[in-house]
Design goal:
The protein is an alpha/beta fold. Helix content is 47%, strand content 16%. It folds into 3 domains: 47 residues, Transferase, Pyrimidine Nucleoside Phosphorylase, Chain C (Transferase, Pyrimidine Nucleoside Phosphorylase, Chain A, domain 3, Up-down Bundle), CATH 1.20.970; 240 residues, Nucleoside phosphorylase/phosphoribosyltransferase catalytic domain (Pyrimidine Nucleoside Phosphorylase, Chain A, domain 2); 88 residues, Aldehyde Oxidoreductase, domain 3 (Alpha-Beta Complex), CATH 3.90.1170.30. Strands 3-2-1-4-5-13 form a 6-stranded mixed sheet, sandwiched between helices. It has a 4-stranded antiparallel sheet with strand order 6-9-11-7, with helices on both faces. Strands 10-8-12 form a 3-stranded antiparallel sheet. Helix 5 crosses helix 12. The radius of gyration is 22 Å and the shape is globular. Uracil binds next to helix 9.
Amino acid sequence: MRMLDLIIKKRDNLELSKEEINFIIKAYTEKKIPDYQMSSLLMAIYFNGMTDRESTYLALAMKESGDSFDLSAIKGIKVDKHSTGGVGDKVTLVLGPLMAACGAKFAKMSGRGLGHTGGTLDKLESIKGYNLELSEEEFVNQVNEIGIAVIGQSGDIAPADKLLYALRDVTGTVPSIPLIASSIMSKKLASGADVVVLDVKVGSGAFMESIEEARKLASLMVNIGTLAGMKVYAVITSMDEPLGYKIGNTLEVIETIDALNGKGPKDLMEVTFKIGELLLEASGIAKGDDAIKLMKEKIENKEALNKLIKLVKAQGGDVSYIKDYDNFPKAKNIIPFKALKDGYIEAMDTEKIGIAAMVLGAGRERKDDIIDFTVGLDFKKKIGDYVKKDDVVCYLHANLIGVDESLKLLEEAIKIGNKKRKHILIKEIIK
Ligand code: URA
């Protein structure tokens, strides 16, 4: 097989076979295909797309380029969720303990935040002592014992995806639906879960800005998972405003603790309950209204909060932070951002809001930037709320850097007008 022939085949919009895709991924991972040929193929895929079959073969080939987690020693149904990236998205932190309390096994490898989006690992690291690295054996034992473990990506998971993602990043080929879908699914297939719910974000703070694109991405990921023998559902949820009120690592853990104490913001709970309902249904634990009732019970009787405490304890974290969040170190300054005029909050540019938190130090612009866990944004108003001039829209929790830039970004991001808009959070469910 020659790479040149395969590039020409894709350039001419013909379907690549499983053997051809396997050949490309194996040879590229072994450095037998130069970057210039791979870039050319990626650009042909960017313009011509891929069939569902090709995308599935690509996801499987990338998964098989490295290690897979063997979770067969975990008793029960292993559930996982994945978000395509959002602002204020702390669903994993609320949902994980909740699923464990409902009897599912939440075995999760999470990622760090990059750019305007946050990452679960950074949020967990804001809890002093929390250890993100467990061996496969420790991971399996912990899930068997307490029903939950949340760790960083360990081992050599989908190395072909790492190489390809780096190449896509510098060749303008990241925003391709088949490439994004197979990249995400290669890692999900390697994670060893039985059931995955994908939270595909759409809107101003998301990868996918239109519902059509989000639908295509979600359906393709569900098809790849199903063709590969996994149970995968997807929800499409809005990122036209941040999820919940708090953005930034410590602040988001605090909002998580509130949520598990039954005081979670409505939108955060709506997404959590919807994903939870799908996971519980797919695991055969409970369905529809029964699933919602079960989750509400586990919050009311504090079993879900206790699972979070057990998780933090098992992974070496200081549980006094969870029991009383006044123990978290705080930012030195709390600065109000006030409404510039009377009216309704009509729109929020979520990407800009994410950047307004990032410039305070809550996120990374580059991979090796250091995060300040204490900083971030605490909103008091969101879309549809009425404000009077000088009412506080949000508080900046800040230390030394980024305050002026953050205030300027917030001013650009928050649109006040005379329309009371309704914001639809859960757009679609794909099974
Ligand atoms: N996340 C991934 O893992 N891969 C992509 O291609 C895009 C987002």
